[in-house]
Amino acid sequence: MKIAVLTGAGMSAESGLKTFRDSNGLWEGHNVMEVASPEGFKSNPELVLDFYNQRRQQLLEVHPNVGHTALAKLEQNHEVKIVTQNVDDLHERAGSSKVLHLHGELLKASSTYDRLDVLDWRNDLNLGDFCKQGYQLRPNIVWFGEAVPLMDDAISIVEQADIVIIVGTSMQVYPAAGLIQYATSNAQIYFVDPKPSINSSEKITVFTEKATTGILKVISQINKAL
Ligand code: APR
Questions:
Q1: 18-61+104-141, superfamily in CATH?
Q2: Which atom of ligand 1 is nearest to the CA of 102?
Q3: Residue 21 pLDDT more than 80?
Q4: pTM over 0.85
Q5: Mean of the per-residue pLDDT values of the chain
Q6: Does 68 sit in the ligand 1 pocket, CB within 6 Å?
Q7: Burial code of 183-205, b = ≥16 C-beta within 10 A, e = fewer?
Q8: Which atom in ligand 1 lies closest to the alpha carbon of residue 7?
């Protein structure tokens, strides 16, 4: 089976990474627009770089959870492609081999001159860290108001899927939230979230569960149906 897995912040919540909208729109104490928009970066680059430095340090201290691991194991029997809104690398560390990061990656930096100039970056990123052409580097994150370059690839993954599994997203941020519309009428859709934003229907089976327990239930249902 071709399985597309769409994951959001809830996927990594049980690894210890905070979601965005579970704390009144504040993300680790910051207004999201202050730290995740080009305007925020322009008005206070040091604050934004420091914020992502903290996120990067935190990421290196956490581990994939059993949900990440179960999705990686699913590759043994299926063609699994993950489209994640998360900027962490927990799917990769769990062993998933096909992961598309719709909103960028925390462990990469890109040039403010040429966004396609991307470098691996595991340490702190500071003012004065330049690309080869001498321009300031920034976190390789898709901020609010910026284009989502991998959207077409994500759409094609969903269009080709027999099964779509959605995990831990509030489905509030577009265009990512619109991906579900590209599932074919034959595709079976599963949605795992303790506070799901959509209801069960003929086409969508909702598991009101955390990622770690819900994903195992989805996989067992898929295996039963085969
Ligand atoms: N397991 C599964 N889901 C969970 C868990 C858990 N343990 N804990 C919380 N959730 C769910 C919440 O119920 C919520 O529906 O995860 C979802 C998190 O929603 P958001 O915080 O809005 O995260 P997400 O949908 O990934 O945000 C999308 O917004 O700020 C931007 O670019 C950022 O990629 C991010 C995008």
A1: SIR2/SIRT2 'Small Domain' (3.30.1600.10)
A2: 34
A3: no
A4: yes
A5: 95
A6: no
A7: beeebbbbbbbeebeeeeeeebb
A8: 26
